């Protein structure tokens, strides 16, 4: 008999390791269908909450935030690109790429969760940002991605223009911050076990097997 587990996946759309981590987690879960019955909740986290809607050039951002120039992180960028490809995510990050504000995307993900489309929309947003280089703060981009996964584009527009779910997303962000989450992805199992970072599928699988055994 499979063991039900709650998985809170705390992440941001503009975080490459979050895209990798979700893909690796899903690979692990595909090997555990006879052991665990996952209930995945995507939880909001903003790496750059003060980022303007028009975004900021990645090179400028990296230098301001981390004191690194793009040529200093090229090796890391190549490694991230390869890890992402392993889980089916094509990353086209370049020196002229931009980082955008993700708050409205998190509001839309909250709404998508109520309709059972949260994970599908998350993948669509990862593709929009990392593969297409799209501005995920642009309402038209968000609406199009919502429609692409079977959500009502008119309701998506109403969510974005009305500010709906602002309080819910802010409250969730604060809850996870108060619990000690300061970097993402953070994967919390049954509100008890923490797995940090974009781990390989084997690490997720081993951890989930152990948690399921403990619950038996």
Structural summary, described in words:
- With 216 residues, the protein is of the alpha+beta class.
- It has a single domain, classed as Glutaredoxin, CATH 3.40.30.
- Helix content is 51%, strand content 14%.
- The protein contains nine helices and six strands; from the N terminus they run βαββααβαααααββα.
- The strands form two sheets. A four-stranded mixed sheet has the order 2-1-5-6. A two-stranded antiparallel ribbon has the order 3-4.
- Strand 5 and strand 6 (193-196) form a beta hairpin.
- The longest helix has 15 residues, at 16-30.
- The mean pLDDT is 94.
List the helices and strands and how they pair.
Blueprint: E1 3-11, H1 16-30, E2 36-44, E3 56-57, H2 58-66, H3 74-86, E4 98-99, H4 103-114, H5 118-131, H6 139-148, H7 153-162, H8 166-178, E5 186-189, E6 193-196, H9 201-215
Parallel strand pairs: 1-2
Antiparallel strand pairs: 1-5, 3-4, 5-6
Strand content: 5-15%
By DSSP, the count of extended strands is 6
What would you call the structural class?
alpha+beta
Low-confidence residue ranges: none
Share in helix: 40-55%
**How far is the N terminus from the C terminus?**
10 Å
Main sheet: which strands, in order across?
Answer: 2-1-5-6
Give the key terms.
single chain, 216 residues, alpha+beta, Glutaredoxin, 4-stranded mixed sheet, two-stranded antiparallel ribbon, 9 helices, 6 strands, 51% helix, globular
């Amino acid at each position: 008999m499979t063991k039900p587990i709650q998985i809170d996946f705390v992440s941001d759309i503009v975080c490459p390791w979050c895209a990798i981590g979700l893909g690796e987690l899903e690979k692990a879960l595909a090997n555990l269908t006879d052991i665990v019955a996952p209930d995945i909740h995507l939880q909001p986290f903003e790496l750059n909450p003060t980022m303007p809607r028009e975004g900021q050039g990645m090179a400028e951002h990296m230098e301001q935030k981390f004191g690194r120039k793009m040529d200093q992180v090229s090796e890391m960028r190549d490694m991230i690109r390869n890890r992402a490809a392993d889980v089916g995510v094509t990353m086209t990050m370049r020196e002229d790429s931009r980082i955008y504000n993700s708050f409205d995307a998190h509001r839309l993900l909250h709404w998508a969760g109520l309709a059972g489309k949260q994970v599908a929309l998350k993948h669509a947003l990862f593709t929009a940002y990392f593969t297409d280089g799209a501005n995920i703060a642009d309402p038209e981009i968000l609406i199009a991605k919502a429609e692409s996964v079977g959500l009502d584009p008119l309701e998506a527009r109403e969510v974005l223009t009305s500010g709906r779910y602002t309080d819910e997303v802010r409250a969730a962000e604060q809850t996870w911050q108060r619990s000690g989450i300061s970097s993402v992805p953070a994967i919390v199992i049954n509100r008890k076990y923490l797995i940090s970072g974009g781990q390989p599928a084997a690490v997720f699988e081993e951890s989930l097997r152990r948690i399921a055994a403990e619950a038996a």
